[in-house]
Design a protein that fits this description.
The chain is mostly beta strands and 768 residues long.
Length: 768
């Protein structure tokens, strides 16, 4: 019996399931190809050479992209003890200065030691290996050899006494009483007489007596009176009420206001300053951070250079260690930095810390007397497991927090405040601590290590169940992603995710997806391959453009790959698929009849030159090149008049899954003998591809498509035709074990929408 079956689309990527269980739209191999719902399967975009960043190689590096605006974009490369900044638009290195030194950049493994976040004009650099310390500087202490007595009342018929280091001065008032000035004057005179020259006693205001011990030793001061000990107040060591403080006092002196007895958190400190009393920090308290151990800031100067400096973090200005404690990151390392709802935040150990609202450098409370809504937030992620927090990701109006086994959600009401914030467990999945999760729209992706391979989960909010879940998107490719995933790059414009692994640093793992309302129409995995000697250090998206930092044997390079569909090389009607592509002009040697091009980099491989738009009817034609040195290429003829596109060829490969006859329920009929007769490929805007058919234990048969069909308008002398249509090729073998590959190793595009096949089938038994 002769049958025909359609493969409706080819955009669902690789599956590692058994062939009978796969969808017809899934494949065995998808290398250097991009599958999209709208455009179908196409050869992946080329990389465009932007610049050589440095001539030396590195063992470990951390890279970060700064996207300030369309005119200012930079790539930051962090290595042990050094930070370099490159202009993303030109590739030029920008000067970087270190006014405070570069010791904060020291790390044996920079790739795992650093994290960066850009907030407006500031990029915060965090070294995750350095514990935060407090500075040795402390708030000024009150002089120990000075004491003060406030004469608060002068009632009639009462006695008063001041004791200074065992020496007393007395005064009494008769029935007529007196005033504060008379009483304080009498006590001052008596003290001065009784204490002698070893002390200086003076009135600094009408009712304030100051006693100074001239040899610098401490003054031990006490008072008593017959007015319930309320008339004389020795305030050097504090006072019970703020109302006890005099209107005039010595500038810079700090006095403690006691709280409830036994509750030190109710006490606070005030300092006489600028003619009045203001809340202050306890004398002698360590209230300043050691800025060399906290995140530094990277800022662009007016002249285009960058400064890496310490941050002027706000010190503790009120209270003491009990009433206004140091943030919990002191003595610990900082694992991540983030920005959320107008607060700068850190993750340290199991705690989430956020600055005061709108004051990014302040992590102490504004007052020790109350907790304000704008005060810093310092809250643990409470759980029965030890949950060291590694990453914080703002997502869907909340802040998601990732430990190695648990995901938390930080929420608050309309106002994010210490009293309203809370941290809840939302899911419990293992996650990779080396890789920051990546968000695309309403989805967030994070990797899960599984021995020698990695799984990837898609976290989302389930609107129907009012809950959260993280579905594995690698269930059908359980060993496709290797271990060591350290970077996820996401493009919301193209619904594209790229994963980079330290195990296979020359390979990018490409994930494409598409949602049609609540139904996922596409979940496709494939690979982007570079030469074995290449090592991808960074991949980051801006819009549809993926910027790559690639280390090669001769240095580190910056390249871009634009995933925009239907993209064309400037001046041509198709994209030129050559990696490390440059547009350069050659030099013609008339004596030898050769044109030579000098590349801005060194490389080996198969290179091709493609004529630019200035070449008229020959524009888009390819030239085979001979490599004469590591960076020079030649061809016969004169092609030096205008620039040409030059780059390294790369190969697209797509291998169909084994095909099976299915019943009305779309279940494979494994008892049916199937002999494939031929395939039909529906292609569009394609210039070249070939199909290689390799039956089980037999030789490979090759069928080429060049687009050169006589009588078509696209066929023009001297330039490659780009056409659409269908391509038929024979198979003539069993469906079991046959490998059917689509190959494109030229600079020309190829795109495929669907396929179908014809087969002879013998059904050995009927399914009930």
């Amino acid at each position: 019996m002769l049958i025909n079956k359609s493969i409706a689309n080819m955009f669902n990527g690789v599956s590692q399931q058994a062939a009978p269980l796969r969808q017809s739209s899934q494949c065995e191999i998808q290398d250097n190809a991009v599958a999209a719902v709208a455009t179908g399967l196409r050869k992946r975009p080329p990389t465009v050479h932007l610049a050589k960043l440095q001539t030396t190689t590195v063992g470990s590096a951390f890279s970060h992209l700064i996207n300030r605006d369309t005119h200012e974009r930079y790539e930051v490369l962090l290595t042990n003890g050094n930070l370099a900044v490159y202009d993303l638009l030109t590739g030029a290195a920008r000067p970087v200065y270190y006014p405070d030194g570069a010791s904060y950049l020291s790390a044996t493994d920079p790739a795992s030691a650093f994290c960066l976040v850009t907030v407006a004009d500031y990029t915060f650099v965090v070294n995750k290996t350095i514990p935060v310390r407090m500075s040795v500087n402390r708030a000024p202490s009150n002089p120990a050899n000075v004491g003060y007595v406030v004469v608060a009342a002068s009632p009639a018929q009462h006695s008063f006494a001041i004791y200074v280091n065992g020496t007393a001065a007395n005064a009494s008032l008769g029935e007529s009483g007196g005033n504060l000035g008379n009483l304080s004057g009498t006590l001052t005179a008596n003290l001065a007489r009784n204490l002698g020259s070893a002390y200086s006693v003076l009135r600094i205001s009408e009712n304030v007596i100051k006693i100074v011990r001239n040899d610098g030793n401490p003054v031990n001061l006490s008072t008593s009176d017959t007015y319930g000990n309320q008339a004389l107040l020795p305030i050097s060591n504090g006072t019970a009420r703020f109302s006890n403080l005099p209107v005039t006092f010595d500038t810079g002196y700090t006095i403690r206001i006691f709280g409830e007895e036994g509750n030190t958190k109710d006490s606070y400190y005030v300092e006489y300053k600028d003619g009045g009393w203001v809340e202050a920090v306890k004398p002698g308290t360590a209230g300043t951070f050691d800025a060399s151990t906290l995140p530094h800031k990277l800022v662009r100067r007016y002249d285009g250079a960058f400064l890496l400096t310490r941050v002027d973090w706000d010190s503790r200005k009120t209270g003491d260690e009990d009433s206004n404690p140091a943030p919990s990151f002191v003595g610990r390392t900082i694992n991540d930095v983030f920005f959320f709802r107008n607060r700068l935040g850190f993750l340290s150990d199991e705690n989430i810390l956020m600055s005061r609202a709108g004051e990014f450098f302040s992590f102490f409370g504004a007052t020790a007397r109350a907790v304000l809504d704008s005060d810093p937030i310092d809250i643990p992620a409470a759980h029965t497991k030890v949950s060291i927090l590694n990453y914080a990701v703002p997502f869907n109006k909340v802040l998601l927090l990732f430990s190695d086994q648990t995901q938390f959600q930080l929420t608050a009401g309309d106002i994010l405040a210490p009293k309203t914030v809370r941290v809840d467990v939302v899911t419990e999945f293992e996650s990779n601590i080396r890789c920051r999760p990546a968000a695309i729209g309403q989805e967030l992706f994070f990797p899960v290590e599984r021995g020698n391979s990695t799984g990837l989960r898609e976290y989302f909010v389930d609107a129907n169940n009012s809950g959260n879940d993280a579905v594995e998107i690698t269930a059908h490719v359980p060993t496709y992603l290797p271990s060591g995933i350290f970077k996820l790059a996401a493009s919301s414009n193209e619904d594209t995710l790229i994963a980079v692994s330290s195990s296979t640093p020359n390979i990018l793992y490409l994930y494409k997806f598409y949602w049609n309302q609540s139904e996922k129409m596409q979940s496709a995995w494939g690979r982007i391959l570079f030469p074995d000697s290449d090592r991808v250090l960074e991949a980051s998206f801006i819009g549809t453009n993926c910027y790559l930092v690639i280390q090669r044997i001769d240095g580190i390079y910056l390249e871009s790959m634009d995933f925009q569909p239907y993209l064309k090389a400037p001046g041509l009607d198709f994209e030129v698929h050559l990696d490390r592509r440059v547009l350069i002009q050659g030099e013609y040697n008339s004596a030898l009849g050769l044109t030579t091009w000098t590349l801005p980099y060194q490389d080996t491989g198969r290179f091709t030159a493609v004529l630019g738009w200035q070449y008229g009817f020959s524009a888009g034609a390819g030239l085979n090149l001979t490599q004469t040195s590591a960076n020079t290429l030649q061809t016969t003829g004169n092609y030096a008049a205008y620039p040409v596109y030059v780059g390294r060829n790369y190969t697209m490969q797509y291998r169909f899954s084994e095909q099976y006859l299915t019943d009305r329920n779309n279940a494979p009929m494994l008892t049916a003998n199937l002999k494939l007769r031929r395939f039909i490929l529906n292609y569009s805007l394609s210039g070249y591809f070939r199909v290689e058919v390799t039956p089980l234990a037999r030789q490979t048969y090759v069928y080429k498509f060049t687009g050169a069909n006589l009588g078509t308008a696209a066929l023009q002398l001297g330039r490659p035709p780009i056409t659409s249509g269908s391509f038929k090729f024979p198979v003539q073998t069993s469906n079991i074990g046959v490998a059917i590959d689509i190959i494109n190793d030229t600079f020309l595009p190829s795109t495929f929408q669907s396929a179908e096949w014809e087969a002879e089938v013998a059904i050995l038994s009927k399914r009930s």
